[in-house]
Amino acid sequence: MTDEALDLDTIRAQWLGVEFDVSTFEMQAGPMVAWAEACGETDPRFLDRSHPDFQAHPNFTTVCTSGRFLPDGFPSIGNGFGIDGGKTVEVLAPVRPGDVLTGTATIAEVFDKTGRSGTMVFIVQRMSFTNQDGDPVSIVDWKTIRGV
Amino acid sequence: MNYEDVELGDDLPIEHPDVSLPKIEQWCEAAGQRFPRFVDHEAARAEGLPGALVPGIMSQGFLLAMIHRWAPGCTVRKIDTVFRGQLVIETELTISGAVTDTDDDERTVEIDLTIVGEDGRTGVIGTAVVAFD
């Protein structure tokens, strides 16, 4: 086992699953419709406010963040802020206008990969959202890549 | 489109999403992501980018809209995208999908997703799990 791997093992043991931010977000119909239109959506469930099943586009919660991406005291890995490696969205229930979502941030995974351009560390920040009734509606994983 | 109509290997109709500046601005405003690198070519080039970039999350939205057009009324349960390359606004992007798995018990299908830029480079790859009534 390399020192690097050992460090990641330590980071995982200390930080995975630790909740470091809780924020609330009020869902509004206007941005929901504008978002769906801009993405080329044609399904009235996402465009027509009078539709009986009107709801936000499935990945609407991906921009619901407080701006905190790492817990205080999280070790510095690599250089700079990192590269956006992608997003995973699990849709558990529709998000409706007027919903007040609570997003809880955790570190879900830290792992490394080595390729032609060297070793990269992936940090996965997870935001788990519930609505005002406490029902889970969405889980969003943000993948940040840092070179080491 | 019903679950029974889907065959393993089916291709979704190829689409070319609108990445004109007004559409990008509309999405940025809705998303609260008003960053110059998405709407200003000069500002983006000053950051070393080839031009203003299509926001990664918006590109995920293109894929969702494509799936909804292919199977109206379906529910996307999960979408996972990896941002592999830079996609420049005001260019022609090509988005596609193919069914790679089906689950008769859950009545779900898995789709591989791709977005390719005008230069032929792959900008986004991903998968989605889609449920049918």
Report the count of strand segments of chain B: 5
Largest interface: A-B, 28 and 35 residues
Strand content of chain A: 35-45%
Here the CATH topology of the domain at 8-18 and 53-131 in chain B equals Thiol Ester Dehydrase, Chain A
Shape of chain B: elongated
For the record, the CATH class of chain A is: Alpha Beta
Describe the structure.
The complex is a heterodimer of chains A (148) and B (133). Chain A is 16% helix and 39% strand. By secondary structure, chain A is an alpha+beta fold. Chain A has a single domain (3-27, 65-147), classed as Thiol Ester Dehydrase, Chain A, CATH 3.10.129. A five-stranded antiparallel beta sheet of chain A has the order 1-3-4-5-2. In chain A, strand 3 (100-115) and strand 4 form a beta hairpin. The longest helix of chain A has 13 residues, at 3-15. Chain A is elongated. By secondary structure, chain B is α+β, with helices and mostly antiparallel strands. Chain B has a domain at 8-18 and 53-131: Hotdog Thioesterase (Thiol Ester Dehydrase, Chain A). Chain B contains four helices and five strands; from the N terminus they run βααααββββ. Chain B has a five-stranded antiparallel beta sheet, covered by helices on one side. In chain B, strand 3 (94-103) and strand 4 (108-116) form a beta hairpin. Chain B is elongated and about 50 Å long. Chain B starts with 10 loop residues before the first strand and ends with a strand. At the A-B interface, helix 2 and strand 2 of A face helix 1, helix 4 and strand 2 of B.
Task: Write a brief structural summary.
Chain A is an alpha+beta fold and 148 residues long. Chain A is built from two helices and five strands, in the order αβαββββ. Chain B has 133 residues and is of the alpha+beta class.
